[in-house]
Write a structure and sequence with these properties.
- With 305 residues, the protein is an alpha/beta fold.
- Helices cover 37% and strands 16% of the residues.
- It has two domains: 104 residues, Leucine Dehydrogenase, chain A, domain 1 (Rossmann fold, 3-Layer(aba) Sandwich), CATH 3.40.50.10860; 137 residues, Rossmann fold.
- The two termini are 29 Å apart.
- The chain binds NADP nicotinamide-adenine-dinucleotide phosphate.
Length: 305
Amino acid sequence: MSTPDGPTLLDGRALAEKIRAKYEPKLEALIESGRRPRLVALRVGEDPATEAYLRGQRRGAEKWGIEYAIETLPASSDEAAVRKALKALNKDRGVTGILLALPLPEGIGARGLQHQIDPAKDVEGVHPENLGNCFYGRYSLLPCTALACMALIESSEIDLQGKNAVVVGHSEIVGKPVALLLLAKDATVTVCHVYTDDLAARTREADVLVVAVGKPDLIRADMVKPGAVVVDVGINAVPDATRKSGTRIVGDVSFDEVAAKAAAITPVPGGVGPVTVAVLMRNTILAAEGMPPLDDPNQLPLFNR
Ligand code: NAP
């Protein structure tokens, strides 16, 4: 429950730092043995939305001491050219982690290309082998944002067993994998989406509420159970005349009013975002180590491995 001082703020920057400290010895061991991880982000064209995301990754990699490079293909590239570039990265023994930056230019399908990434280098956990392992309760390289949500929930110290967890949004990179991971922790999971009838009735049942939609103010105070743990994945730029940029970033949850009811809540920015970058770095280290899949969900998400 929220304390007399208000809810616990699930501070993503502090958690990201804890994750870094936890994986530092593994990284040092890799560097000492001459195997410094090298992460390559492949992008096609220079979409400004991708830019901010890649900047965050580069900053994260620099902080961790992981080599990071961006390879840019011309915006006019076709699917065959992207496939070829991924093949070359798969083959390159100096590259230990690969990610394909989205969105791709119109006409190029992301899914088929993500399937071309060597699953052992798939540090975003988007290859069907890694997602399939997750489905079967074998944990390998898991989708970064989903795992970041689990790490933040874990940091709230809630015991998930038997709790009602509601996930709003069912994308392949966030909603679906987070639902599987919550299930692995024995929560009773409800997944909501655009066709869900009476969303508020579902979310009000949630002891743990994860929202990954991309709509500001989708979740208002009257949709939240008192004492819930709320994880806001959304990133939305809304107009703000007081800022030089003319916009500010908010999540999908009306923060102030929901915070007044929740036991714990993630801020936006400073919640899921920094932890996602930390998990990407953690995945990069595990990929460089040649991580075998794990069978024990109690080892999830981060701190025992
Ligand atoms: P996405 O692929 O667009 O998925 C959005 C999901 O929300 C879909 O399942 C959609 O359902 C559902 N939805 C749309 N409107 C809804 C409504 N009114 N009520 C309930 N569900 C609704 O998005 P995503 O990639 O998962 O990303 C979601 C948000 O998280 C975005 O704001 C994105 O920028 C952010 N994000 C943040 C991070 C981070 O590191 N912080 C990482 C990834 C994504 P239908 O498919 O049925 O329409």
